[in-house]
């Protein structure tokens, strides 16, 4: 996976006028009075939401600094918060994402890690794919093959509908390079990632 993979995997652009018209039709089909005061502007608002969500610009993600003295060091940024939308129900899921890597001569700008998460969160997603995509992007941008990403998700499609389990949390992890093969290293980074979150 390369940095160019941050483009949306869509089949076309967003026709915001058509989205608005379709939402108007949807509300009618749902038996709603679309000309009532509260709903009159809703199709346009929701169309704007989709455009903002899917075309969100996370900003520059590829600033990295040479750091040859990084031998033996690891970097962990934990508690990155993001919202995404599940592919199956188009309902939000909230994520806490924790990223760790062992630099290989270069370190990424710290703010770039939340920006990378946002890049992949602003898609119709499943949590597992997002976790994998973030790990590969961090690897590509940092030049380090030793990357771990842990995501803890709360899915509204499980909480407010369907099984209606409000307490369930989903943890997904993607371990690359030495984090995959070296259990002790992976555990050190995982512990560092989750440690500061104990009080939450
Ligand atoms: N693996 C995975 N599944 C997800 C994610 N988000 C939502 N799902 C699941 O997608 C599945 C879709 O299942 P279906 O049986 O097709 O749909 P459904 O009848 O609405 O399922 P219920 O949610 O069980 O009511 C559900 O089990 C969801 O919990 C995700 O990020 N990863
Ligand atoms: Zn869902």
Summarize the structure.
It catalyses: GTP + H2O = 7,8-dihydroneopterin 3'-triphosphate + formate + H(+). The protein has 200 residues and is of the alpha+beta class.
Averaged pLDDT, please?
Answer: 93
The CATH architecture assignment of the largest domain turns out to be 2-Layer Sandwich
> What general form does the structure show?
elongated
> Would you list the SSEs in sequence order as H and E?
HHEEEEHEHEHEHH
Summing up helix and strand content along with how strands pair, one would put the structural category as: alpha+beta
The tally of strands reads 7
How many structural domains are formed by the residues?
2
CATH topology-level name of the largest domain: GTP Cyclohydrolase I, domain 2
Spatial strand sequence of the major β-sheet: 5-2-3-6-7
- Ends distance: 33 Å
Query: Tell me, what is the CATH class of the largest domain?
Result: Alpha Beta
Give the assembly state of these chains: single chain
Q: Which regions contain 5 or more consecutive residues with pLDDT less than 50?
A: 1-7
Query: Proportion of β residues?
Result: 15-25%
Backbone CA Rg: 20 Å
| Major beta sheet summary | 5 strands, mixed
| Ligand inventory | guanosine-5'-triphosphate, zinc ion
User: Going by CATH, what is the homologous superfamily of the largest domain?
Assistant: GTP cyclohydrolase I, C-terminal domain/NADPH-dependent 7-cyano-7-deazaguanine reductase, N-terminal domain
Question: What key attributes describe this structure?
Answer:
single chain; alpha+beta; binds zinc ion; 5-stranded mixed β-sheet; GTP Cyclohydrolase I, Chain A, domain 1; GTP Cyclohydrolase I, domain 2; 7 helices; two-stranded antiparallel sheet; binds guanosine-5'-triphosphate; 200 residues
């Amino acid at each position: 996976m390369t940095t160019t993979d941050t483009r949306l995997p869509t089949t076309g652009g967003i026709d915001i006028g058509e989205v608005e018209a379709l939402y108007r039709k949807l509300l009618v089909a749902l038996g709603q009075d679309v000309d009532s005061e509260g709903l009159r502007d809703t199709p346009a608002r929701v169309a704007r939401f989709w455009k903002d969500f899917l075309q969100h610009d996370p900003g520059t993600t590829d600033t990295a600094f040479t750091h040859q003295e990084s031998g033996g060091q690891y970097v962990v940024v934990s508690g990155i918060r993001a919202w995404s939308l599940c592919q199956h129900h188009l309902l939000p899921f909230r994520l806490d994402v924790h990223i760790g890597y062992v630099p290989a001569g270069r370190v990424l700008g710290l703010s770039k890690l939340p920006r990378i998460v946002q890049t992949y969160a602003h898609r119709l997603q499943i949590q597992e794919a997002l976790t994998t995509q973030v790990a590969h992007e961090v690897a590509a941008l940092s030049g380090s093959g030793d990357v771990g990403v842990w995501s803890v998700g709360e899915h509204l499609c499980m909480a407010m509908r369907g099984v209606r389990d409000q307490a369930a949390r989903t943890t997904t992890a993607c371990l690359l390079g030495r984090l995959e093969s070296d259990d002790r290293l992976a555990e050190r980074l995982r512990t560092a990632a989750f440690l500061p979150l104990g009080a939450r």
